[in-house]
Amino acid sequence: CCRMLPFSAASWVREGELVGYKGRRDIDCLMVANFANYKRHWLLFKVLRKLPPEVTAVCVGVPLKGRTAATVREEAREYGVSDRVTIVERAKDNELRELFQRAKVFCAFSDKEGSFVAVAESLLAGTPVVMFKNAIIGTKDAIDQSNGALVSSATQARSAVLHFLNGANHAEIRANAKGIFSSTVSCAKLNELLKDDALRSGGKWSEDVE
Known about the structure:
Blueprint: E1 27-32, H1 41-49, E2 57-61, H2 69-78, E3 85-89, H3 93-102, E4 103-108, H4 117-124, E5 129-132, E6 148-151, H5 154-165, H6 170-181, H7 183-200
Parallel strand pairs: 1-2, 1-4, 2-3, 4-5, 5-6
């Protein structure tokens, strides 16, 4: 009785809201994730620990499951990188959109979750994504050598981060992401799927999806 549609929660990002920042990319590593365990902030700190001391990270999130900003700060301290980590709690939407555009690389280090919409937002901001190859994440299929890296270890993650810190084709990353995650593009795709289904079944189509 059901037919799957080729969309996820990450298919409906308003790409127009992720452009407009005119400043330079001054955030080395960005992680946008709640403070729960499964987001694996500790893995970011492990990667950061053996990167050059001038490399820093910004962690944006909200408290969840008993873990707070203080919990994340303590983890950073345990890895010896607390002075290189900035934690932003409960960022407003406009602040968050600017952070995506300021970042040089987005670190998506979760082990398992659903669509991980922040990955889509990052790519639509032209920011490359580093993710672990064995992660079970809905947006993983969108990551390739043109817009990020799928890695198997912290060592590989460091190499990928260093690579993207030296620059990336941000315009190309954004352009390619629009075909996958843009709400405008997804709406048009949905319209065509519903229209074709209606016509094939002998129905009529008089009003497009808005």
